[in-house]
């Protein structure tokens, strides 16, 4: 159930449907999870000031159950996300922030129940 929420001051025309599809596929492969469980939400055209500058900026947040417990894994994921975003979009490394959210399965509702209950069945 990885959920990705990307906030950026890039204009919406810089974020194509293909970019979102490629991002979904990349994350599914990186986390070794089914892409059908993944959501990518991009909020472009935001007014974001970082370090006194309106230069292109991305805040990339990813939340998931049982994925972000190991620091070494998060470091690997972080590097992959930074490389990917700076390659695909006109944003410098120092203008990207990646935030990991560990979510307990009992805190996620899916299909009218909880993720923790679905895992038991």
Question: What does it look like?
Answer:
This protein has 121 residues and is an alpha/beta fold. The protein has one domain (3-120): 2-Layer Sandwich (Macrophage Migration Inhibitory Factor), CATH 3.30.429.10. It is 32% helix and 24% strand. The protein contains three helices and six strands; from the N terminus they run E-H-E-E-H-E-E-E-H. The strands form two sheets. Strands 2-1-3-4 form a four-stranded mixed beta sheet, with helices on one face. Helix 1 (17-31) links the parallel strand 1 (3-8) and strand 2. The protein is globular, with a radius of gyration of 15 Å. The two termini are 16 Å apart.
Task: Spell out the blueprint of helices and strands.
Elements: E1 3-8, H1 17-31, E2 39-43, E3 58-64, H2 71-88, E4 96-102, E5 109-110, E6 113-114, H3 115-120
Parallel strand pairs: 1-2, 3-4
Antiparallel strand pairs: 1-3, 5-6
Task: Compose a concise summary of this entry.
This protein is 32% helix and 24% strand. The protein contains three helices and six strands.
Structural class of the helices, strands and pairings? alpha/beta
Helix content bin: 25-40%
Strand order across the largest sheet: 2-1-3-4
Distance between the termini: 16 Å
The CATH level-2 architecture is identified as 2-Layer Sandwich
What would the average pLDDT be, to the nearest integer?
91
The oligomeric status of these chains comes to: single chain
The count of β-strands is 6
Query: Class, according to the CATH hierarchy?
Result: Alpha Beta
Q: How would you name the CATH homologous superfamily?
A: Macrophage Migration Inhibitory Factor
Could you please say which CATH topology applies here?
Macrophage Migration Inhibitory Factor
Number of domains: 1
Low-confidence stretches: none
Biggest sheet architecture: 4 strands, mixed
């Amino acid at each position: 159930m990885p959920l990705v929420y990307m906030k950026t001051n890039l204009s919406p025309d810089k974020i194509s449907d293909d970019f979102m599809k490629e991002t979904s596929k990349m994350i599914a492969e990186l986390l070794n999870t089914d892409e059908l469980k993944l959501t990518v939400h991009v909020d472009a055209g935001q007014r974001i000031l970082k370090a006194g500058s309106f230069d292109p900026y991305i805040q990339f947040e990813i939340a998931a159950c049982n994925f972000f417990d190991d620091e070494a894994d998060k470091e690997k994921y972080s590097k992959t996300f930074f490389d990917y975003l700076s390659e695909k979009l006109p944003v410098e490394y120092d203008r990207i922030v990646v935030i990991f959210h560990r979510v307990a399965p009992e805190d996620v509702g899916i299909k009218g129940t909880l993720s923790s209950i679905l895992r038991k069945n």
